[in-house]
Amino acid sequence: MPAQVVPKAPGIFIRRYSIVGKYTNEPGSRFVKHVALIRDEGLTSHGTEVPVWDMRPPLVAGTISASRTQQDAKCPAHVVGWLSLTSDDRDGMTDWLAEVDKQERPNTSWGLAEQYTVSLSPEDQWHRDEKGVRLYRRFSCVSFVLAAYLEGAGINLLEVSDPENLPAVRLDTVVRAYGEHLRRLNRVRAEVGLRGPEPWRILLAGYIYHAMDRPDQSIRSVPYTVPSEAAGNFPMQ
Amino acid sequence: MPYSELDIASFLGAVEEGREVASKRQARLLLRSLRLLSEVLRTDTRRVSAVESLLVPDVNDLLGLLQRGRESAEFHRQYLRDSYSAEPGDAIRDDDEEQPGKHKIVFRTKEGIETCYRGLPVVGEDQPPWHDLAKGQYLGDATTRPLSPDDQLAVLIDTKASAVSRVAALTGLRGSPLESVAVAYLAREIIRMELPPEWRDAAVFAVEATHFPPDLREGVGEALLNIAYALRAQPDGPERVVWSALRRGASLLPTTKVDRLLGFLATDGTVDTRSVALQCVSRMYEAEPPSAVPLAVADRVHLFAERFLDPVVFTPGEPSVIARSAVSALAAVGDRRLGDALTALHSLGRLWLVRRVRDELNRLYRGWIDRGFSLEQPAVANLGNALASFD
Questions:
Q1: Which residues contact B71 (CB under 8 A, 6 or more apart)?
Q2: Taking 50 as the threshold, does the pLDDT of residue B21 lie above it?
Q3: Are A154 and B355 within 8 A, CB to CB?
Q4: CA-based nearest residue in chain B for residue A118
Q5: Phi and psi (nearest 5°) for A37?
Q6: What average pLDDT does range B257-264 have in this prediction?
Q7: Nearest-Cα residue of chain B relative to residue A141
Q8: How far is A135 from chain B (nearest CA, A)?
Q9: Is the predicted ipTM greater than 0.90, yes or no?
């Protein structure tokens, strides 16, 4: 099974570019709050912080952005998803990360809105110049991982071609992912791409693990269609 | 209780418990006063009368000050814990109610004095400078006490204000009646040489996020490329500032100035600008294909394609980004050697590389067609023919 809760010690061996996830702090939570790409392969047990490439913000997509942000980006390993990546897949992802690594923006409050978005609109996923030409990318933690797989390895994990087909996500769920402050801060919600009243058609981190909880051949050939907002939990229970 | 009976050890304990510069500093000041008074009373009888005339602090005041210090410590510790960039310093808040908008906080840090403004999303209890969505933390309330556009403009042009405050003010002015004034000011600043490094870097990033009216674009673009060129030669050149300035500088220049990128296609300098510069060449022509091939740039780009698609040199990572960016740039400038480059690319046998280059070339081609350029336009036709090699 290529997606599972990371077991306690001695743990499991996780390969590079597997997708590691962190649960919320709620007792017994299975709601995935954050996802990231594993930087180095190794033995990992439940809750161990592992080095990752991710979009928190800040964007840490390679050694350059990692050194500039002075942060060793890490993520507690609560849940992990993987498939048997070929060397071709991994090379493509390495290339993708090297390119994105140069687009990291300052992570101040004004920089937040410049590079973080949960919006799936193509217009929001790139910042463009006056002529509509691309300058730098915007991600959420989920879209960062999805783009690394899709553009780097050519593997489309989730069916997002029409965001209207995604489950509607309520504010209560968004708050579990991002914190209580989003409940009262309309401006911050708009900054990260949550425009208008709830619910919103956005991606939850947990969806990725249901996409990966399938045979490799299915993962590579058919993007996963998210059935409901409850798939933000993994396992769904 | 007279000061002489105060338990100095308990002060020290409270300070250590706080483990915070703000409380330590307050307590040290108190202790210094107490020790001075104690010392004077014990050793200098000639000054006793003077000492008696000093205001001896009431113990409740002292404890109150310490409590405030501990609260301050709690407040600041949260920032220090959550932000790699936070560092302790001293602050004075100037609450001048007679001059709305002039409520400022003067910080003394190791870099010198900085002035920040209350109500902006960068400093103070209302707006911390750090978001961490992965942790679900946002340590303040963004809706409190926004400054008026006039006040924000005052902050933007205040050269003593911190760079983050000034950029936050600029952000706050977007969509306001003063936006064009702010954009013009930013353009003047970036064109002005000898900006302080912190403000220069922040202004470069701000320029990349700002749209400019046509009459300002070329001047700002030239200035950005000058900044990028100067910084890439510095021993510890700030890479992301250089790349941001290069991306934005190129995007603001007309395609007739594409030769300005030649300097960034060289290996000299401490910041490697080759892959970003190659992407800039492509993107300069995304909106409009060239009517004639810019030969100097095309020759350099072809050299990169040839060298980095060599099987001996090709490696996933920065070299592969250079290789595929060079192929895209060859297509964008309409160079006929694109076909040779694609032959070399196919011969590498890297499926991911073929897919990524094909996707990028398709995007460029579709963009030109969608913008209404003729299939017979030389660069469009050249790219159309090249794309056939992917079938």
A1: none
A2: no
A3: yes
A4: B133
A5: -95, 130
A6: 97
A7: B134
A8: 7
A9: yes
